[in-house]
Write a structure and sequence with these properties.
223 residues, alpha+beta, 2 domains, seven-stranded antiparallel sheet, three-stranded antiparallel sheet, 3 helices, 24% helix
Length: 223
Amino acid sequence: MPRLLAATLAAAFALSAAPAAAHEGDPNFRSDVLAVTPSTEGIAVEVLNRDDRLLLTNRSDSTVLIEGYSEEPYARLHPDGTVEVNRVSPATYLNEERYGQVPVPEGADGRGAPRWETVSKTGRFEWHDHRIHWMGKGVPPAVRDASETQKVTDWVVPIAIDGRRGEITGELWWTPQAGGGPPLAALVALALVAGVGGAVVLVVRRRRLVDGGRAPGAEREAW
């Protein structure tokens, strides 16, 4: 029984820690897509997890090119669903972490011919774009009253659709959250631990009652 409890505790702690490893936005911010130009049927863009990353879906007959931070080709989505990233674009590496704190390989400077690598065939591409969120820590200087919801800035992600220059435009908002309690996963894990602990106590008590009623010398089960 102690082994069962230990295993359950380990699973519960793993459950409570899981959200920290997943993609998460900052609840004090919200990034909104306003428009995609040139307007093309079958092309849609949305923000995931408040301000964490962009999702572009291409169900059109056009090829969509997303530009990196130096206007270099970064990613493209073809009409057949093929999604490619340019391995010599700095954005390919910088977009792996919210604050871009990752090394960029030598030669990945965005210059010269792109080196395309297929990453999926889904017609969907998610990426963590640093242009859509606040890159600093704490409250942005543009926020006049940290207790009030207000716009922080406008943002633009350059794109091209079948060679026609365009952009994804949006806004970043400050959305202060009231101080709350522990995260939901932690509460679930705590409830799980409490429930198993109560069950263990109940089983132990019942076992002791049974053992207490046995004749002297009767064999007892080892725990």
